[in-house]
Design goal:
single chain; 129 residues; rod-shaped; Phasin
Amino acid sequence: MAQDKQKPFEVPEQLRSLTQDSVDQARKAFDDYVAATRAAVSKLEATSSDAQTGALDLNRKILELAEENVSCAFTHAQRLVGARDLQEIMTLQSEFLKRQMANLGEQARVLSDAGARTASEFAGRTTER
């Protein structure tokens, strides 16, 4: 009866090989998934960074133009304070308005160009990735 003892269960070599192949395939699929996810996150971060950079540049330009307008308004106010009569005030006001209208037209063009350039650069960077 000593020979009738059951042998411990052994996993057949074919089953171990099949299982190992399955594990290897699952690991490769997971590694590919992680790599694709990292690439997508990197692309998103870069795109977000580009958008922020473009928006910051545009905001700086807007601030620069606003400062220019405020400076012109203070200069105009100083001239008005020095006016001697109503006729001079009317002349100063008329000249100021003409200058401001010309400046506003130029500023609108500058902002439009800057906005278009930012959008174009952003779109170009997005499609390159």
